[in-house]
Design goal:
Radius of gyration: 13 Å
Distance between the termini: 39 Å
Structural class: mainly beta
Strand order of the largest sheet: 2-1-7-4-5
Shape: globular
Length: about 90
């Protein structure tokens, strides 16, 4: 399995990167947490078409009591090795 470094990676206090999965693709993140906006940018690097796009982000295997949940715009979640994100988008009609 090949992992990739990402532009959204941040330096954490210990400098170690962890492997997380975004839409089943591995990414290395060097931060203790990741934001809604960072996860969406990693899932859809070019962005979805149209101004009426709404993203839905769910995650599993989060850290410290945040095992499973939804991530809202402006929010962030603490991550650990194996945290998995599923990102879908829809357009309002």
């Amino acid at each position: 399995m090949t992992t990739q470094n990402t532009a959204a990676a941040h330096e954490s206090s210990n400098g170690k990167a962890v492997e997380v999965f975004i839409n089943a693709r591995p990414h290395m993140i060097s931060a203790k947490s990741v934001s809604f906006e960072e996860v969406v940018a990693l899932a859809f690097p070019g962005g979805a078409q149209g101004g009426d796009t709404e993203y839905i982000v769910t995650y599993t295997r989060g850290q410290h009591g945040n095992g499973t949940g939804n991530l809202a715009p402006g929010g962030e979640v603490r991550i650990k090795k194996g945290t998995s994100f599923s990102i879908h988008f829809t357009t309002r009609s």
